[in-house]
Design goal:
CATH superfamily of the largest domain: Type I PLP-dependent aspartate aminotransferase-like (Major domain)
Number of domains: 2
Oligomer: single chain
Shape: globular
Radius of gyration: 21 Å
Helix content: 40-55%
Largest sheet: 7 strands, mixed
Strand order of the largest sheet: 1-9-8-7-6-2-3
CATH architecture of the largest domain: 3-Layer(aba) Sandwich
Number of helices: 13
Bound molecules: pyridoxal-5'-phosphate
Amino acid sequence: MSTVSLPSSSRHDAPLHDPTARGFASDNAAGMHPEVLQALVAANGGHVPSYGGDAYTSALSEALRAHFGAGTSSAVVLTGTGANVVALQALTSRWESVLASDQAHVLHDEAGGLEHVGGVKVTALPTVDGLVDPADVERAVRDADSPMRAPVGALTLTQSTELGTTYPLDQLRDLVRVAHGLGVRVHVDGARLSNAAVSLGCELGEVTTALGVDAVSVGGTKNGGALAEAVVVRGEGPAEALRRLVKPSMQQSSKTRFVSAQLLALFGGDLWRRTASAANGAASALATAVRSAGATTTRPVQANAVFAALPPAVAQRAAARVPFHVWDERWAPGLVEVRLVASFDTTTEDVQALAAVLREELARG
Ligand SMILES: Cc1ncc(COP(=O)(O)O)c(C=O)c1O
């Protein structure tokens, strides 16, 4: 028998990343929460049924039902894009369209996934700080009521929004009432649902299914998991659609137990609340630090993201020292808008370090 040995250049004896590196580029840049990692290790060993037939997936399904209500069903998926694509297909017919905010991840940052996989058109609604107004939903649904247009089957709302804001319960209730009154189902992109619920002082179900929301993408990855998201739907029609859609939407993992074990660690107890509280608290401290460094915040800080205006050269130099993204290059004459995202493991020292960098770079001009 012959053996193949790898050239020494392809052996990875040295660490491939610096485990002490910190930044504010995204909550996706953070690693896994130690309790989630522990749950993953505990789920290892032995052979169990694959494709979701395992005890972790059953226990997760019960835990999610406890959060979102007795009439709900869930599926485990691998990405937030996958969750949105599966959930929105479950709520729509192939000839229908989906209304989304003009800031929506599903519109800008999913590479047309819903159109590509689901064949469902997405139409943008205007927003203020990422929030959709019920009157614009009503207008868009009526505008689409023509043989020349794709009728609206669903409205998707991001909670917390792409701009770090949260829908108050009353606004959500109104949006659901208006949408349902027009025969339109409602989906919540909850990639950061935990952050929104903590910010509003609510349970996960209170901000979604208890208000009549028909489907929820429940985020795990940004809150301490990895490759771990879920979809929750209300009612029997969407439940059957969900059962059928996960596999052809390429979101069915064979070793589902490892995804479910992570989500169970987050949602089976209060870890989701602890991690989101930590991230939201860090964002709030960050906003104060950014302002005291001399920059202006540009959006209400209601979850785990802070947006601020900086001169382009300052933003570029500061981001080279502590990573963060420029969100809008043309925010105002002489200013770009930047996005700083806090994670479950952001520390006071991280916040202070960024503030010191901003102070220095602003002084340089
Ligand atoms: C609002 C929102 N929805 C969904 C996602 C899911 O994205 P992904 O498919 O990269 O997991 C993200 C990720 O950044 C997001 O910010």
